[in-house]
Amino acid sequence: MGTKRYAQMCAVAAALDLVGERWTLLIIRDLTTGPKRYNQLLEETLVGIGPNLLAARLQMLTEHGVIQREPVSGDGRGVQYRLTASGEALRPVIIGLASWGLTHISSYEQDGLVRSEWGRLALEAMISVGPPPEVDEAYEFRIGDEVFHVRCEEHTARVVDGTPPDEPALVVTADPETFIRIGTEQIGILDAMLSGNLTVSGDTTSLTRCLRLLDLELTSKAPPAEAHADVS
């Protein structure tokens, strides 16, 4: 499959020559959460991409050293794709796009496909903005079928897969759609709790620190929907 190039001596253009075509960055997004098989990408996370196009994108990324093929442990014939060191270097780009995109979901694909693992990316995007807490603690998030936590220590915060080794100061449970709607400020935390779509357990001071880290408030900052006059 031929690929158009920008033919510019510019680092941005050179990067877009490799990852700027449709679906390419979404493939990288999905591999930031772990290795995936071809069928996982085709049938679960990249719904709408054609099989030939996915194969072409994977081949191109492999040839340029962004991803690599590897056997699936315990499956003699299975193959999966994972990011190389070069691909991992794109993680801050993906997180940066997620941070920027959180302000646009409300006016775009708010009713589209949503997956639990994308909640992890949203969380990484949110903690890249707020100031880290001044105390060492962990906040556990149970989003759909995914469990991860924010580890705060030595004035830094990072997202880690699984439950924390010690007792978390806070446990947050939500479905993926609710969690992302909270992150995009389409719904307030209190409203989500009252609706039963969000539960939070832990002490109030830890909740306050977590909200500050994620740059969130208990109530939504989104303006209320405009009322429409009845002209009938």
TrEMBL record:
The keyword Cytoplasm does not apply. Keywords: DNA-binding, Transcription, Transcription regulation. SUPFAM superfamilies: SCP-like (SSF55718), Winged helix' DNA-binding domain (SSF46785). It holds the Pfam family HxlR. Gene3D superfamilies: SCP2 sterol-binding domain, Winged helix-like DNA-binding domain superfamily/Winged helix DNA-binding domain. GO terms for molecular function: DNA binding. The keyword ATP-binding does not apply. Transmembrane segments: none annotated. Residues 10-109 form the HTH hxlR-type domain. This is HxlR family transcriptional regulator. It comes from Nocardia brasiliensis (strain ATCC 700358 / HUJEG-1).
